[in-house]
Inverse folding.
């Protein structure tokens, strides 16, 4: 399929999810339990994202150790969990139920392309890897490898850019929560807008987003010096 026909790409999915979650938060209110579940998903996704980057050696070797022994694409599993957390924070159950379809619609072509490249570059090992390891979600056999989660992990592979991205995940989560609180206050479903409890999620959203920009600025300065 050509790019012109790609209605929803992998790169655009997160922006769409954040937008739909923020808009949904105006009309829906998540329960405290749902908010807790959302941050558990977000934290788990951020953790898998971090570990995946610490194991991955892009375009050089076929990564089969650590988290890559549980699923072939742990980075995409991390994205699934993070985006599901955003959907849960919106309070919109329909969006949460629709997300799996959006995920496979946007990630499907990328998965096929990447695995085709793997089989070309590492024909024998890649085929065995594909046949023996589930693609995105672990199964009852692969989950047994969780004990070797950090095999092959190195902090040297975690870039400043990745740290900024994880910080931005939390900034967006608090922003969605803040939008919902402010909208609920404006409609009389929550405390008045001027009360601290209403605006409380907005403060970490602003601080964390600013922190992500500072981290990226530090990275830019380091690259300039190098």
């Amino acid at each position: 399929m050509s790019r012109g026909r790609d209605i929803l790409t992998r790169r655009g999915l997160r922006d769409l999810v954040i937008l739909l979650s923020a808009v949904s938060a105006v009309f829906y209110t998540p329960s405290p339990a749902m908010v807790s579940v959302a941050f558990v998903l977000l934290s788990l996704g951020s953790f898998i994202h971090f570990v995946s980057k610490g194991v991955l050696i892009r375009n050089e070797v076929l990564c089969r150790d650590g988290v890559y022994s549980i699923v072939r694409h742990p980075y995409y599993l991390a994205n699934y969990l993070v985006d599901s957390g955003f959907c849960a924070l919106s309070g919109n159950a329909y969006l949460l139920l629709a997300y799996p379809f959006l995920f496979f619609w946007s990630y499907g072509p990328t998965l096929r392309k990447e695995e085709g490249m793997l089989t070309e570059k590492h024909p024998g090992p890649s085929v065995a890897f594909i046949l023996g390891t589930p693609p995105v979600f672990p199964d009852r056999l692969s989950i047994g490898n969780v004990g070797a989660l950090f095999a092959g992990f190195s902090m040297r592979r975690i870039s400043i850019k990745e740290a900024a991205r994880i910080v931005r995940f939390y900034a967006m989560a608090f922003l969605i929560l803040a939008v919902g609180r402010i909208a609920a206050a404006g409609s009389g479903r929550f405390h008045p807008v001027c009360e601290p409890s209403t605006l409380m999620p907005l403060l970490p959203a602003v601080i964390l987003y600013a922190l992500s920009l500072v981290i990226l600025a530090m990275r830019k300065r380091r690259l300039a010096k190098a």
